[in-house]
C-alpha cells in the first residue's frame, strides 16, 4: 500500500507525457512548424510514435527485471494503449487525410503486393485485439495464461511495424535499422528469459533450430 | 518552329495574389474536411499560412510557350522542402545545411565524345547563351509536386556549343563531391548513396526544348538547397533526374548508370518519365499532392508535357523502360 501511495502521482504524469507528441504535433500544425507537406509530416510523426510506444511497451518487462523496480508494470498497459492510439491516428491520417477515402487506391495499396503497406496494416490490426482485451475484466475472462499468450501478438505487431518503417524509406536505412536493432535486443532478452525459465523448471532444453 | 524568347520581365515580377491565397485555401479545405471550420477563423496564422516570400505577380507577363499558368508554389515552400541527400535526408536538411555552401567560383569539366572538352569556369560555360524564364511543373517520385518559375539556359543550346560527336548517344552529369561542404558525404557508415550523384539523358532528350540548365528560381540566383549554381530541369521526368550542383558533363555512347538506378534498379530506371500508369513498386503514381493543396490530383502522363516529349518514346515499352 505504501508503495502505491509513493508512486500513484507518477501515473498521471506519465500519461500526460505520453500525450506530448500529439500536442506537439497539433502545436506545430497550428503555428506553421510543419513542412510544406504538412499531411505527410502528420502521417510520418504519428507513425514513428506508434513504433516508439510499441518499443517502450516491450521495454517495460526487461527494464523491470533488470532494475528490480517492479512498479514499472503499471505503465505497460498505458504504453501499449498509447501505441494503439498513435497507430490509430496514423492509419486514420493515411485513409482520411492522405488518400481521402479513395478506396480504390487504398485497396490497390493493400493487395498489390506492397509489403510496405501490408506490414503497416498487420502491425495495426494485431494491436486491435490487445487494445480490446487490455482491461482487468478481460484478463479474468480469458484467464491469465491465455491472456498472456494472446498479448504476445505484440511481438509480431512490433516486428511488422519496424519492417513497415524499413520498407518505407528510400535509401536512408539508418534509422529503421536502429529501430530493428533495438527491437531485436528487446526480443532476444525475452528469448533468454524463456530459456532460463525452462532450465530452472528442469524442462529439457529445445534444440536450437 | 517556335522560337521561345527570353522575356525581359524578370520572374521576380511574375505572379499574383492567388499565390497568397494558396495556403489560405489549404487551411480552409483542411478545416472543412476536418470539421473544424471554426478553427480557420480563430487561428489567424497556421501551418498553412506561413510567410509567402517576396514573389509578386504581374498578370501582364505573357506566358512562354512552355509555361504553365498554374499557381506558383510559394518560394518559401520550394526552398525549404527539398530532396538533396548530400545535405541530409530530411526535406528540411538542405535549407539548413547548405548555408555555407560555395557555389562561386565554380568550374565544370566537359569530357567524352565532343569537340569542346575542357574545364570551364561557370561564366565561360554559359557565355553566349540566353537565360530564359520557364514555369514548369515539378513532379517528385514521392508523389508530390510543385510549380516553379526557373531561369536558365536551354540545355540544347549548351550541348550545341559543346559540339558532341555523331557517335555520342548520351550525356552524363555528375554532382560535386566535397565532404567539407556536404555532410552526408562525410559518412562512412550507413552511406545513403554512392557519391557522386550521377544522372544522364539520351542526347535527344537533352536537346529537347524543355530541358533546362537552371541557374535561378523566382528571379533570384538558385539557392544552395535547390542546386546552386547549376542544375538540370527535365519537367516531364521525376524530380530525381534534376541533378544539382553539376561539375561534370560527359558525352558517351553508353547509357549512363544513374545513382537511383544503381541504388535500387527495381524501383528507379534510367528514363524516370512521369507515368501515372506505372506505379513505383511501393506506392502508386496515379495521383500526386500539389504542395499547398489538400486533395490529391491525378498525375498526367509525362507530367502533362506529352505534346513536347511523347514522340521521343514512340514504340518503347514504358512499363519496362520506366
Per-chain topology:
The complex is a heterodimer of chains A (209) and B (322).
Chain A: H1 2-7, H2 10-31, H3 38-67, H4 76-98, H5 103-111, H6 115-132, H7 136-142, H8 144-151, H9 153-168, H10 174-200
Helix pairs in contact in A: 2-3, 2-4, 3-4, 3-9, 3-10, 4-6, 6-9, 7-8, 9-10
Chain B: H1 17-34, H2 37-42, H3 75-78, H4 93-97, E1 107-112, E2 118-121, H5 122-126, E3 132-139, E4 144-154, H6 155-162, E5 170-175, E6 198-202, H7 203-206, E7 212-217, E8 220-221, E9 231-233, E10 246-252, H8 259-263, E11 287-290, E12 297-298, H9 306-309
Parallel strand pairs in B: 1-10, 4-11
Antiparallel strand pairs in B: 1-2, 3-4, 4-7, 5-6, 5-10, 7-8, 7-9, 11-12
Tell me what the structure shows:
The complex is a heterodimer of chains A (209) and B (322). Chain A has 209 residues and is mainly alpha-helical. Helices cover 79% and strands 0% of the residues of chain A. Chain A has helices at residues 2-7, 10-31, 38-67, 76-98, 103-111, 115-132, 136-142, 144-151, 153-168, 174-200. In chain A, helix 3 (38-67) crosses helix 9 (153-168) and helix 7 (136-142) packs across helix 8. Chain A is globular, with a radius of gyration of 19 Å. The termini of chain A are far apart. Chain B is an alpha+beta fold. Chain B has one domain (70-313): Oxidoreductase, molybdopterin-binding domain (Sulfite Oxidase, Chain A, domain 2), CATH 3.90.420.10. In chain B, a hairpin with a 4-residue loop joins strand 3 and strand 4 (144-154). Chain B is globular. Chain B starts with 16 loop residues before the first helix and ends in a 13-residue tail after the last helix. The model of chain B is unreliable at 4-9, 12-21 and 37-59 (pLDDT under 50).
